[in-house]
UniProtKB/TrEMBL annotation:
InterPro entries: DUF6089, OMP/PagP_B-barrel. Signal peptide: none annotated. Pfam families: DUF6089. Residues 68-160 form the DUF6089 domain. It comes from Spirosoma foliorum. This is DUF6089 domain-containing protein. It comes from the Bacteria.
Length: 325
């Protein structure tokens, strides 16, 4: 029994000495045998929607219009000094409002001002991405690069459900909550003969972006990244085509499909009456147009931009000793 104890103590001592020796060499020797390592991250930041209610055609204006928030968790595996893979879950809120976008200049942004749609959407994203680090890591996590800019790209599964604020008059008339889910209302006639089928509340997206991480100590990094998600749907905002015929949508669906004549902006409570009167005189065609979103024009798919700041915990790698028999 004593011999067995001595063997165990000796093996533990060898493991400890080997670990110390390996760590010392890792600080001095070049990267000859990379040891993969993992990290978990938590972070948050801003989210910005792009689509019919926040157009791609005005990127700078749209970038700073109605930003909201995102929160996320991730797991990253560093396979080589340059390449890593990450799985991450992100919950982001995106918002769009024609009135807010156009109220500073109703004549210049007449289409958005007249259309007068609004939405919010809580997007749940599960993404798998590949990461390329411009600066290679050392041979293990303890000697990883101090500062590393990187590129990333991949594929994401996105669940969403757009909602709209109906305004006081509709809330009272239909006894509604503050926010109303839009997809079940089929605001563009979806599901009716001659119209498209209802859009899915699950879609794919392509996340691409840039980022950088900074090593705080052996166990923690901080990071920042900007990533754009081009989705495969045009209905993050419930807007993608034309106004439906009057017989295709009735009741609340019809009221929320066409909001051009509302005199009060639903989200802000501001009066639109005076500007609407001027626009009826200067742009009467907008009040008779069939184009609710893109109409006959083929517009880019909806997307969103995430700016994220993270804290990353490096999972320690253990030195494995052979079992004692």
């Amino acid at each position: 029994m004593n011999n067995y104890k001595q063997l165990v103590v000796g093996a533990v001592a060898i493991c400890l000495l080997t670990g110390l020796f390996t760590e010392s060499l890792a600080q001095r020797r070049p990267n000859t045998h990379f040891v993969p390592y993992s990290s978990v991250s938590f972070g948050g930041g801003t989210s910005t929607y792009f689509g019919e209610l926040n157009p791609y055609s005005t990127p700078l204006r749209s970038l700073f219009n109605l930003p909201r928030w995102n929160l996320g968790l991730g797991y990253t595996r560093q396979f080589t000094p340059h390449f890593a893979a990450r799985v991450a879950f992100t919950w982001a809120r995106i918002v769009g409002d024609d009135y807010t976008f156009s109220k500073s200049n109703p004549q210049k942004y007449a289409l958005q001002y007249v259309t007068n749609l609004n939405f919010r959407n809580d997007v749940k994203e599960f993404a798998i991405t590949g990461i390329y680090n411009f600066i290679e890591d050392g041979r293990n996590s303890d000697v990883r690069a101090k500062f590393t800019p990187y590129l990333f790209g991949g594929l994401a599964l996105v669940a969403h459900s757009p909602e709209t604020m109906p305004g006081d008059s509709l809330q009272q008339a239909y006894k509604l909550d503050k926010w109303v889910k839009l997809q079940p209302l089929h605001t563009e006639g979806q599901g009716q003969p001659g119209y498209q089928k209802p859009y899915s509340l699950v879609t794919l997206a392509i996340p691409v972006g840039i980022g950088a991480r900074y090593r705080l100590n052996d166990n923690f990094n901080i990071g920042a990244e900007i990533g754009y998600r081009m989705t495969l749907t045009n209905y993050l905002d419930d807007v993608g085509g034309a106004y439906p015929n009057p017989d295709a949508v009735q009741g609340l669906g019809a009221a929320l499909a066409d909001r051009r004549n509302e005199s009060i902006a639903a989200r802000t409570g501001d009066s639109r009456a005076a500007d609407l009167q001027q626009l009826r005189q200067s742009n009467p065609d907008l009040f008779a147009s069939s184009a609710r979103g893109g109409g006959a024009k083929k517009l880019p798919r909806d997307g969103y931009l995430l700016t994220t700041f993270t804290i990353q915990y490096i999972i320690p790698t253990k030195i494995k000793c052979p079992p004692i028999k």
